[in-house]
Amino acid sequence: MISKGKKIDTDFSLTVVENGEQKDVQFSELLDRPAIVSVYMKNNTSSCDKQNESLAEEAEWFNKKGYNLIAISKDGYRSHKNYAKKKGINYILASDPDYKFAEATDSIVEKNMFGNTFEAPSRSAYVIDTDGTVLEIIEKVNTKAHAEELKELVESLQN
Question: From CA 3, how far away is CA 32, in angstroms rounded?
């Protein structure tokens, strides 16, 4: 996993859903101000729902503090659009089926589910500055209190 203080490669494209609209963007375009990137596995699954519901409840707080909030998974545009509507998500949902963000942050890990081993992005979160510098990392997200742990990080950065 990338270290705090290192810069990630921001030269890759993603499809995002923002305000119900689909856009294809370079990741660097999402860094018009510092960003919080929360990585989760799949829409409409218990732990991932808790993680996103936590963020949705506090999205305006992050916006007022000057951060773009981005949740990223392998789900496609249609799934993200429906998920945002269902969960009341008003922040960016990014589709990354090729794990480009995980490659940029060196966060692809081995996982085991139902006896099957596979590689996928770690459930982690990053605070990234406008130039791609990683300011903070949560290596293992607390799905139930994700927004709270991120708020603590943001507060520590502003002190």
Answer: 22
